[in-house]
Amino acid sequence: MKRTIIRSTGKAIPSRLVTNDDLAEIMDTSDEWIRQRTGIEQRYWIPEGVEMGASDLGLEASKIALERAGWKPEDLDFIIFATLSPDITFPGSGCLLQHKLGLKSTPALDVRQQCTGFLYSLATADSYIKSGLANKILIVGAEVHSTGLDKSTRGRDVTVIFGDGAGACCVEGVETDEDAGVLASVLHADGGGAEALMVELPASRLPDRLPLDAINNTARHYPVMNGSFVFKQALRKLPEVTKEILTKTGVPIDKIDMFFPHQANLRINQAYQQLMKIDEKKVFNNIQKYGNTTAASIPIALDEAMEKNLVGKKGDTIFLFGFGAGFTWGGILYRFM
Ligand code: UT7
Asked: Do residues 320 and 334 touch, judged by C-beta distance below 8 A?
């Protein structure tokens, strides 16, 4: 049977370190508030004044993943690019990355599922592989948030949580009898939650999609979030999706070696861990260093854990899962072979 396996990972973290104290210099916030409410200590943003889009960070992460897989860009059958901060409105960052990789006709797909973008992408790659449509796929999650944040006190609840970054994965279909690779995926969405976490402008639904008055006088081109509502929804849906995947696969929770939650808020992940009665050491968190990098957070976490040899041994079983804008949520159970 054909199984989808992760051949390699890579990540790109931009160079500009932004501490909580740095943010406190430009808006009314504090290191204490940010640490207490989110666990975040710092994040990285792209350098000031340079043109650098999601595909540029994605390219850096992709080159590392490709090299580790021993693949040339020409070996790829397909590229899937997850981002909520595309380089330009259209075409998608996947096409831009494809060109930057020197490719001429390899298909590229953008996924606009925000915090669960990587999960939707991996589930899509798994389906493409199992259906025979592609066999070697590059998946990228990349975000440049910093050029689109409200850096005044008005935007402090959202701005302090976001970091820039990219993660990439090379995945491949292999014929095997082993119960390994992507064991199961579960994806969900509820568009009823769209307004709880969104960026409205530019908006095709408006007679003028980019009204200058709105940009000058309102925050409608910046992300807005009903933080406590999103927090509570996340804590409801993450356990639900965990139970769903356990039922679907028949794998008991204590056979999962490492949990990789989306890095939205350390408090969400800690509450999840306590609720599910999981050993704290089994829940991977790095939001303290990078902030919330949205579609990039899970592949960056996976890359870091693999670099540290925390996971990656034959038989290691990991759970990748998350909740975010859309609302969207989901989980993927994966076993290394
Ligand atoms: O990745 C996508 C999914 N996103 C998430 O899962 C995020 C979920 N939500 C959260 O992480 C949290 O709701 C936040 C970290 C965004 C906010 O934390 P909170 O504990 O829910 O705070 P709050 O929004 O209820 O605000 C509490 C107070 C307010 O002041 P008052 O009204 O009590 O006087 C805010 O104005 O904290 C104030 N506040 C801040 N103060 C200092 C909000 N942001 C800040 C800030 N610094 N950055």
From this structure: yes
